[in-house]
Amino acid sequence: MQHSSASPFSLWAVPEITVAFLSFALHFVWEFIQVPTYAEMAVMPHWEGVKICTSATFGDVGFALTAFWTTAAASRSRYWILAPRIWQVAMFLAIGIGLTIGFEYYYTEVSERWNYSNLMPLVPPFGTGLSPLLQWIVIPLIVLSLSRRVVALDGQ
């Protein structure tokens, strides 16, 4: 079935929109689940925690789009997501993980904007929290899988 250009669902055929929307939804949930692994997050006023988690989620979406567009440039197609090769998935993940390590290091060690609680296992060599690293393995794989299906369905 073809969607007309006037169809509100035609935007789902744009890979970046699908990646951004699904990334936001899934990272938002993850940010709240990992609250106890960040110092003082579990005891701060509710609205402050919501604002911090929402801000972090927008950062995650930025990482996802950076990883998507960099992989698209290397693939010479924004539609690489429809039939991703192993190197494309690896590149997408590596960019997100690299950004995560860099930003977590900066915010925990340099600017000290946040700290991990005793519940956060740390991964050498930079002392990156295990939860944000897992976040950038688990969530992007789900986003890629779901995005592929959504973009393919909408493009039919």
Automatic annotation (TrEMBL):
Q: Where are the transmembrane segments?
A: 9-29, 86-106, 126-146
The superkingdom of the source organism is Bacteria
| Keywords assigned | Membrane, Transmembrane, Transmembrane helix
Query: Is Transmembrane there in the keyword field?
Result: yes
- The identity of this protein, by name, is Uncharacterized protein
Per the UniProt record, the lineage of the source organism begins with:
Bacteria, Pseudomonadati, Pseudomonadota, Alphaproteobacteria, Hyphomicrobiales
